[in-house]
Write a structure and sequence with these properties.
The chain has a four-stranded mixed beta sheet, with helices on one face. A four-stranded antiparallel beta sheet has the order 2-3-7-6. It has eleven helices and ten strands. The chain is globular, with a radius of gyration of 21 Å. Helices cover 49% and strands 15% of the residues. Strand 4 and strand 5 form a beta hairpin. The structure holds flavin-adenine dinucleotide.
Length: 397
Amino acid sequence: MDIANPSEEHMMLREMVRDWTQEHVEPQAFEHDKHERFNLELLRSMGELGLLGISAQEEYGGAGLDATACAIVHEELSASDPGFALAYLAHSMLFVNNLAYNGTEAQKSRILPKVCSGEWIGAMAMSEPDAGTDVLGLSTSAVQQDDGTWRINGRKMWITNGCLDDAGTPADVVWVYAKTGTDERGRVQMSTFLVEAGMPGYSVGQKIFDKTGMRASNTAELVFDDCIVPAENIVGAPGESLIHMMGNLELERLTLAAMALGIARRSLEEMNRYATERSAFKSQIRDFGQMQRYIGESWAKYRSMRAYVYDTANNLTIGTAGQRLDSDGVKLFTTTAAKEIADAAMQVMGGYGYVAEYHVERLWRDAKLLEIGGGTLESHQKNITRDLFKDPDAITR
Ligand SMILES: Cc1cc2nc3c(=O)[nH]c(=O)nc-3n(C[C@H](O)[C@H](O)[C@H](O)COP(=O)(O)OP(=O)(O)OC[C@H]3O[C@@H](n4cnc5c(N)ncnc54)[C@H](O)[C@@H]3O)c2cc1C
């Protein structure tokens, strides 16, 4: 059995996405990274392929596919353009999947067809200028008014797809976490709101330029200044955010790990080809033991990454929380491995590896973000250690 393509449908999906990526994503990757430009039209066009709502239910315009399918698409896109893949992830996993599994019937039937087709582009806003890993340390607040509407105040930071262009056009719809009070034990009560473009008080503070990597995706600061959101745009009951956040984070971490796998695969391909083409001292450089160490170790790491990504994917049921040990574990392992493999590729390729034209320079920069976004390495270490305390039998199961 091929763990990465467990069914005929998965194999066909992979081939379709790989061909499409080769034709449409690969040719634009270099320029969009260079100019820090997000390819909005290319992302929208993925609606025609049925990929923007990959995990959303078919009755709302989604494809209704599983976590393995999600991992396949992220791996394939990221092997060509991780920045573009990150924008896809923010839309399809952080917004669309969240809404598909946690929204009300009315919210799903009104918004899902638009985000599945690409008419609307979505984002998810959890992080703030002063609170990232410490999610409950957020200060963005929402207060319900006498007429039932909610008034949101605060700032969100580092939001992928937060703006759609350099002029600061905001995302069409954002999944926003805000504090709505404290419970009887003094714990922060967090709630989720659907904020749509045109709602008063919602704007882009700034597009964040000069990122190390992922430059083909837009990252923005969002401002909510007495932003008024209708009563029907709260998701679930006040205080219910942690439930959806936890379930969705597992799929986010799996697909970020799949992106790491794509980076690793491409880096390995590039270094393997180069090691044959390049000669020094009258030998192919692949004959040198030190080069063999880079290639051999990268292969072994890549194969381990692939097994862990697809083992986690095959066991992850979208919409239910409970696989945190492996969604944290797979992201912890694969993101650093991807960075190391991209680094090995750059070393094998010498000076050519250090310039953008040969791809791995971009992959090397992009890989670093995966150790930070969607949870830092340290947060995964913390979660795994905590979960193994609660469930030590997980080790021998
Ligand atoms: C390009 C990019 C895109 C992003 N996209 C999004 C997005 O779409 N939506 C969104 O909401 N966010 C997004 N983020 C934010 C990202 O998720 C956060 O950067 C990340 O969660 C870390 O938060 P922080 O940057 O505030 O760092 P902090 O949480 O302040 O962490 C700083 C350091 O302290 C460490 N640390 C913190 N707490 C602990 C602890 N308890 N134990 C040990 N070490 C600890 C961290 O591991 C880290 O090394 C994005 C970030 C980037 C750079």
